[in-house]
Every structure is written in structure tokens, then in C-alpha cells.
Write a structure and sequence with these properties.
This protein is of the alpha+beta class. 56% of the residues lie in helices and 13% in strands. The strands form three sheets. Strands 2-1-9 form a three-stranded antiparallel beta sheet. A three-stranded antiparallel beta sheet has the order 3-5-4, with helices on both faces.
């Protein structure tokens, strides 16, 4: 027994050594190794449009380290134990794993079975390609409506008998919005797919023949048979059938059946089956393993950044104001801006009423104030509140900047316009004037500080000699 165990241990050790030789460690993040293949997977996926170069890899190393440090911090904060995380990760992971459990043979059997059902449904008939001119007669219509439509369809049929073109009449008179633009052309049909009266007429026609007007539960039709053919052999239709079935969830349905069977045979749950199969498949497929890991790590990255960086930064108004003051020059512009509301009213007197209403009201409450005071029962004022640059809006150009572009045409139903707000010539006055940019820039600043803190918290080792072999082995 000792000899057997020793042999197994040596084999495992040899296998590990070979794996390390084939896939050396390129860095360690908080003691956790990152192999060259993992780094290459991430680097190549994020740099698909750029050729390999040392500077590009060196730059990406820093981004990758920050990424892995945030994942490590999220794991240490036990974000990976949250039910919300586990549920979302499992949902994605299972979407990748389940289809891989379906064999090509099982899909082929489903496609063959579908083809057999098609043959059975045809019951010796061929396929028909009809066209029709259709006049709708809703159920329970008055006799006068039916009589009028009958007279119209007879008139159209008379025109056909006199030599008028079927397609042109269909385009002009047919009330089937899907087929009328195509000259009444339908698609291929077999038995049991159409209204009985239509199907009977279609199969009674020869190619090129036109029927007399017929009535179905939908209305009146004139039917023309454009073509007919036998069902193609299975090999000809196979790819189409597989695409059709896949669009209707074939692989997912088969995968669920496989999971249920494996769970029943093993006396385990479906989740345990998927855990086991994920481990097996990821061991066989490196790209799949890294894809699953990528989503796992990406969810953790998002969660920790959201909770510890993005949300706190976006809600810290004092910090945002301070950041704006320190970096105000960054937000300067080369043409005048206007921060405020441009609005359009149905009544002339409401232009002045809006201005009076908003006097002394905080800008952040303007839209809600107008809605509550003037748009309760109906819309009396249409408005838009934001930062406008000169040239963005013809009404702002005319009302605020006194530039007549000729594009400020009165709105239908709201012919009177006004504007209320602040004119900003060189730069914004408040951080809220450019809130989107300020929040985004401050979040980036906080994210940078967070990464610096993590580099002090965790040890990072990069093996430059291995790094130099990335994409070169």
C-alpha cells in the first residue's frame, strides 16, 4: 500500500511540475498565484484590437493587479458568501455549463423526430406557396358590412378576369398588412396550417391558377398558387431544423433533462450536479475555466467598488463640491452655456406664470414644482431641464443667447416658449452644473486611492522573466 501511495504522490508531483513548466506563474497577488495562461486570457481578451507589445503588457499588468486586489478584498469581506452574489453567479455559470452537457446525438435525434413529424403532418401532400388578396370581415359584423366587402371582392375578381395584375391589386386593395406590400405573397404551407376553406382552395389549385372569391372566418380571399414542391430530404433541411429548434430552446430543454437524469442517478440535487460538471468541464477546457472565473471575479469587483467606492463617492456632496473647486479649470468651456429650463406652454399667459412660480425655488425642484402646479389635470407645460451649450437647442439660442438660427419653430399645441436659469460664459458656477462629469471624475479619483490602499494591504510579486514570455512561447 505504501508503494502504491508513493507512486500516486510522485505522479501527482510530476504532473504538477510539468504543469508549472508548461504554465509558469507570472505573479502572486496576496500569495495567490496567477499563471501565464490566466494572464494571457485576460490580456488578449481586453486587447483584441491591438498587437502585442511590451509596453502594452506592462501597462496592462498594473490594471490586472488592481483588478485582482479588489477581488481579493471582496473575498476577504465575504462578498462571495452573499446570497445575491451566489445566485447571480450560479445563474450565469449554469448558462455556460448546461448546454455543454447536451450531446450532438441528442440534438440529432430531436431534429430527426421533428422532420418525421413534418412528414406525418403532410400525409402524402406536397407543400404549397400561396398568395391572396384579403378583405377583412370581423366576426359578428353587420350584414351591411359583409355585403359591402362581398361586393368589393367580387369587383376585384372581375378586374382579375379582365386581365389586371394580381400583385398590383393585392398591393392596392388587400387588407393583410403583412402580405399586401409583397403582392399578397404568403410563405410555404402544408396541411393543417391554414383555415380549412383556404387550405382546401389552395390544394385544389394548380401552379399559377387563381381561385374565385372564398369566405373564411376572417373574411374574403382570392387565392393564387404561386408554387408547389415536395418536402426536401432531411439532410437538406437539417441545419434549418436545428436553428429553428435551438431558437425555441432545444438545447436548454435537453440540458435540463440531462441534469435531472444525472441528479436522479446520483441521488444528488441539480445544483450539485452542475457543481460537479462545472469542475469537470473546467478541468478539461482552460478557456471555460477562465470564463467562469472571469464572471465570478467581475461580480465581486463590481460589488466591492459599488459599496466602497462608487456609491459613497456619488453621495458625498461635500467632497464633490471640494473636488470641483480644486479642479474647476478642468470643466471650463470655449462657448457660452445655459443651465436651466426651456419650456413650452399652451397659453401665452403661462409663460410669465412659470417664471413667477419658480422665483425663489431651488433649481433642483423646478421640474416637480411645475408639474404639481400646472400639469395636474392635463399637460399645460412641456419642459426640459439641463445644461445647454450654445447651439444645442434652437429655443435656448433664441431666448437666452439672442441668436436667431431660424430653427425655433413653435411646438404643435404649445406655441409659446420661455426659459429660466443661469447663463454661464466661461465655466460652470456649481458642481451640480456638470454633475455627471464631476461625479465620474471623483469616482475615478477614489478608485485610484482605493487601489493604492490595497497595494499597501496586500503583497504583490511580479516575475518579469515570465512576463516577458507572454504570447511568445
Amino acid at each position: 500500500m505504501r508503494k502504491l501511495l508513493l507512486s500516486v504522490s510522485l505522479a501527482a508531483l510530476f504532473g504538477t511540475a510539468m504543469a508549472q513548466e508548461d504554465d509558469p506563474v507570472v505573479m502572486r497577488i496576496a500569495g495567490k498565484p496567477v499563471t501565464r495562461s490566466e494572464f494571457e486570457y485576460n490580456y488578449n481578451k481586453n486587447n483584441q484590437d491591438s498587437a502585442y507589445d511590451a509596453a502594452g503588457v506592462a501597462e496592462y499588468v498594473e490594471l490586472f493587479i488592481n483588478y485582482k486586489l479588489k477581488v481579493k478584498a471582496a473575498e476577504d469581506a465575504h462578498f462571495d458568501t452573499l446570497t445575491s452574489f451566489r445566485d447571480e453567479f450560479r445563474t450565469y455559470r449554469d448558462q455556460q455549463i448546461r448546454p455543454l452537457l447536451v450531446s450532438a446525438e441528442a440534438e440529432e435525434q430531436e431534429a430527426l423526430a421533428y422532420y418525421d413529424r413534418m412528414l406525418k403532418q403532410l400525409n402524402g401532400h406536397d407543400l404549397r406557396l400561396p398568395a391572396h388578396i384579403f378583405l377583412r370581415v370581423p366576426q359578428n359584423s353587420a350584414d351591411s358590412v359583409q355585403a359591402r366587402q362581398k361586393m368589393r371582392i367580387d369587383s376585384i375578381y372581375g378586374a382579375l378576369q379582365a386581365g389586371e395584375d394580381f400583385e398590383e391589386l393585392a398591393k392596392k386593395f388587400s387588407e393583410d398588412p403583412q402580405t399586401a406590400p409583397r403582392g399578397g405573397a404568403l410563405t410555404w404551407f402544408g396541411p393543417g396550417q391554414l383555415l380549412p376553406e383556404f387550405e382546401q382552395t389552395m390544394y385544389a389549385l394548380r401552379k399559377g391558377e387563381v381561385s374565385e372569391p372564398i369566405q373564411t372566418a376572417a373574411g374574403y380571399h382570392i387565392v393564387r398558387l404561386n408554387d408547389q414542391k415536395d418536402l426536401e430530404p432531411y439532410d437538406t433541411l437539417r441545419s434549418q431544423i436545428l436553428r429553428f429548434l435551438e431558437a425555441r430552446g432545444l438545447r436548454e430543454r435537453l440540458a435540463l433533462a440531462v441534469v435531472d437524469t444525472l441528479a436522479s442517478e446520483g441521488g444528488i440535487t441539480a445544483d450539485e450536479v452542475l457543481d460537479r460538471e462545472c469542475e469537470r468541464l473546467c478541468a478539461e477546457d482552460t478557456d471555460l475555466r477562465y470564463l467562469v472565473q472571469e464572471y465570478h471575479d467581475g461580480l465581486l469587483l463590481y460589488e466591492i467598488c459599488k459599496q466602497q467606492v462608487w456609491d459613497p463617492a456619488a453621495s458625498d456632496t461635500a467632497a464633490l463640491q471640494s473636488y470641483f473647486k480644486k479642479n474647476k479649470k478642468r470643466y471650463a468651456w470655449d462657448k457660452p452655456h445655459f443651465y436651466g429650463m426651456v419650456y413650452h406652454t399652451a397659453n401665452k399667459e403661462d409663460v410669465g406664470a412659470v417664471k413667477k412660480l419658480l422665483k425663489g425655488v431651488d433649481e433642483s425642484q423646478w421640474t416637480q414644482t411645475v408639474k404639481e402646479a400646472m400639469n395636474t389635470d392635463s399637460v399645460a407645460v412641456r419642459m426640459e431641464m439641463k445644461l445647454f451649450a450654445q447651439g444645442d437647442n434652437a429655443f435656448v439660442d433664441s431666448l437666452v443667447f439672442k441668436v436667431n438660427t431660424g430653427k425655433a419653430r413653435p411646438r404643435k399645441g404649445f406655441p409659446y416658449s420661455g426659459a429660466v436659469g443661469r447663463t454661464l460664459k466661461k465655466s460652470p458656477q456649481k458642481w451640480t452644473d456638470v454633475a455627471g462629469s464631476v461625479v465620474s471624475d471623483y469616482q475615478m479619483e477614489c478608485d485610484k486611492q482605493f487601489a493604492e490602499e490595497l497595494r499597501k494591504r496586500y503583497e504583490v510579486e511580479v516575475y518579469k522573466d515570465v512576463l516577458e514570455t507572454v504570447n511568445k512561447h
